Amino acid sequence: MSRTLILVRHGQSEWNLKNLFTGWRDPGLTELGHTEAKDAGKRLKAAGQHFDIAFTSTLSRAQATCQHILDEMGQPDLETIRNQALNERDYGELSGLNKDDARKKWGEEQVHIWRRSYDVPPPGGESLRDTGARVWPYYLHIIQPHVLRGETVLVAAHGNSLRALIMALEGLSGPEIVERELGTGIPIIYNLNADSTIASKEVLEG
Q: Is 180 annotated as a binding residue?
């Protein structure tokens, strides 16, 4: 029984590079982002992983990352389920804005609160807690059953949707999870016990 859950944040996107708030907007990967995703697949293959099913968001940067990983692992046609529950946090009125321009408009302290607080949403957007409110049920009802059946499951998603998932997996508090940084294209491998607790965790750095 492998009971393996592998989380990967998408490779660098065009808007990551431009320092823009992305949220539910849909820019593609940069050349580096494509490379990061392919490298993640190579590292997972070298580590002996083999997936039974994959999950990703409805946004192209996560889907492209997922497909690159599967291609590199020789599983290009693996069943892949796309759902907006795994989408990035919605940044509302900040979406598409340069982070420096946002600081000029609302002030550095206010933008920092929106970016790094757990439960304060930006105008028209979601807090990390709001993001968790859609990620957690989807994980518990749809993804986790596959893992607990002994499957190896890939989730290719976004910084904040994965933070919300990691918060639940690792039992972290709001202040703890907002400080957690997730590198682009870096696989995190969890092996779970039968009761869904974590048996082991490994980060496959480049």
A: no
Nearest to 25 by CA among 123, 97, 101: 97
Which of 10, 36, 68, 126 is the catalytic position? 10
pLDDT in tens, 82-112: 999 999 999 999 999 999 999 999 999 999 9
pTM for the model stands at 0.96
From 178, 132, 179, select the one nearest 157 (Cα to Cα): 132
CATH topology of domain 4-91+128-203: Rossmann fold (3.40.50)
- What percent of the residues of the chain are helix, what percent strand, and what percent coil, each to the nearest 5? 45, 15, 40
The answer to the question of whether 3 is labelled as a binding residue is no
DSSP letter (8 states) at residue 87: S
- Does the active-site annotation cover 10? yes
* Segment (H or E) for 162: helix 159-170
CB 10 within 8 A of CB 37: yes
Asked if 50 is an active-site residue, the reply is no
Q: Which of 68, 88, 126, 158 is catalytic?
A: 88
193 labelled binding-site residue: no
